[in-house]
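Hmm, how's this folded?
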Amino acid sequence: MFADSEQSFRFNAFYTIGTYHSHKEEAQALVKEIEWSGGNAAMLQLDTGDSRRFGDFASDLQQLLSDKFNQTQFHHLVNNAGIGIHAPFTATDEEQFDQLMRINFKGPFFLTRALLPLLADGGSILNMSSGLTRFTTPGFAAYAATKGAMEVLTRYQVKELGGRGIRVNILAPGAIESDFAGGTVRDNKQVNQVIADNTVLGRVGLPDDIGATLVALLSDNCHWMTAQRVEASGGMYL
């Protein structure tokens, strides 16, 4: 239902609905770009850190599906919202821990539950993890723990939703040139080079690298694939 790169909107020519937290103008600009390219898209505001609003969001989504797309259900859900906080284990306070857990784990857990009546049988869910559940980098203990929780949740969702033919997989990006963690990987040339030197394919990942993998996992080409953790990191820290 939500995707984070233009490629992600292209795999399904029918429609895509994205969400935004606070950058409404950027979200609407992306909708226009997709529609200009021949796609069909819409955006809804969503704060994944406020689970009390998920029921209202589900109602808004149901209304949008009906009014704009003449549909009663959607077929793919991507739980992509999340934040990163860089703090050593010994310096992470409860407020930071709770914020990470609320947005990165509690949010996807209860949002998915709220949207299940609108998710079509035979559809798919794609959760998001991180390469940091495989390799370790000081300062991301709490963040990585929330992503590890998502990996366990994915397997349980597979078990409990398989009767409806719903596939559930989890995508684990490596370091990406993006706004994550204040854009450090993208903007700090020294950090970028260190990561590139420790990546088999010789560079840091780009948003479209993740978008292409996301599209593949949601496509019919992966119809027999479920309960899988797929890392897209270019071979980072092997």
Notes: The two ends are 32 Å apart (CA to CA). The CA atoms of residues 171 and 230 lie 5 Å apart.
